Structures are given as C-alpha cells and as structure tokens.
Amino acid sequence: MVSRMPKQKSPPILAANWKMNGDIQSIKRLLDGLRNDLFDEEIKPGQVVVFPPHVYLQMVAKNIGNTNILLGGQDADERESGSVTGGVSAKMLRDVGCDYVLLGHSERRILFSEDNDGIFQKLKQASNVGLKAIVCVGENLEQRKAGQVLEVISSQLKALISQDTSSQPEELLIAYEPVWAIGSNKSATIEQIGYALAEIRKILRDIDTDFYESTKILYGGSVTEKNIGEILAIDVVDGALIGGASLDSKSFSKIWRIAKTI
Ligand code: 13P
To answer: Model pTM?
Structure first.
C-alpha cells in the first residue's frame, strides 16, 4: 500500500515542459503571468525549471534571470558539434543559460524514433558540459495492458543508466511518464504511480546504491492543480513534470502554491 500521508522530504520539483507551443507574444504573456503570481515566491534554485522551445531559450533566460527559476532545453543532440543540420548541442544549451536538459521524452522516442542507445549518448553529452538531466521513462497503453510495465521501465532505465557512474551527469532525475497519461486528462492513479516509482527506486539501488540514492524521481502525465496535491503526497514522488497545465500561468502558479505546502 502506498502512503498518501505527507512526510518530511525535500521540497518538490516542478518541471514545466512547454513542448512545441507558443510564440514570442504568448510566451511573453506567460512570463508576465508568472512574474505576477510566482516570481516573488520563495523558490529554491532547481525547484522550478522551465523547458521552453529552443528558439525561445534566450528570451526566457533573460526574463527569469533575477529569479531562482532555472532553465532547461527539451532535447540535446547526441553529438558534440559539427555537421548536424538543425541540431542543438548540449554545449549550446549551456551557452544560452540552461542548467537542465530533458531527454528521452516519449514524444521524441515516438516522433523522432529515438532509441535508448541514442538517448544514452545524449546523456553523456549533457554530463560532459555539466547539464543536469531529466530522463523520461514509461510504458504505452499496449504494454500496460500486456502487463509489461516493469519490464519496459527496467529495460529503459538499464540501457540509459550506466554501471559506470563516472559518465553520468552530476545530477540525474528520472521522470516516470506513462505514455497513455500524457495529454489525456487521465493521470495514472496514486497506486500506479507509487508502484512504478518504488520500482524505479529499486532498480536504481540495484545498479549503484551510493550513486543513485539521491536521484530524484518525478511523475508526469496529466498533472493539474486538481491532482498535484495527492501526487506529491506519495512518499516516493519527488516532483512533477508538467505539460499542458504549465502553459497557463494561473494553473502553474496554483500548482506551485499547492506543491509548496507538501
Ligand atoms: P501533460 O501534462 O500535458 O499530460 O504532459 C506531460 C508531459 O509530457 C510532460 O513532459
């Protein structure tokens, strides 16, 4: 049985994945809204991380510069630099002020045919330039129905997480995002989240207890102001990766206000 009682743990992390949404005007409006509702809050560095589309990173970096909100890229290339038309390297993300990078999101795995090997290379690039990485894992509906949740998560994690911890980023976060829960208004249940995150913790411990003990594990998939409280109250959850609800400053600020009481 998964505990629903709030317990003493580090302040939750809220990661806002804006995906391929917005334009200069709407992102300015979103930032203005966040400035009104969120920027004065006592946010510890790394507690709120925003992931805008690459082309708007510098604009957002400037805007959040005097806050503790940190910046991340939604992806980085697996190569260091060179003839990769359209590519954005981990070093470039660092150059424009990113502290984080999101890797292995299911939308990238599906739409861009990313596989575990490529994601592992990206993780190495991120690590080389000092980016913290949030790596996404999670099963699709077919796999869930076939009872393969554990198998899928375990193989994704083991392929991405090296036994050689010297090649891992100084800070690695795992986001459990069941594909069927993304953008569906149908978040995983408390029991499903608790089970998957506890299993992820076990797998990490089996690989290297000392190194992965402090790894933060987030949940993502239809997180809103309505369910954030009960999700963050699960004892194994360290934070949330939020898509749709992070595009509205009011919703995201409400989520923050609930999260800070946990
Ligand atoms: P939604 O919050 O819109 O379901 O998206 C989740 C997600 O994919 C975050 O990376």
So the answer is: 0.94
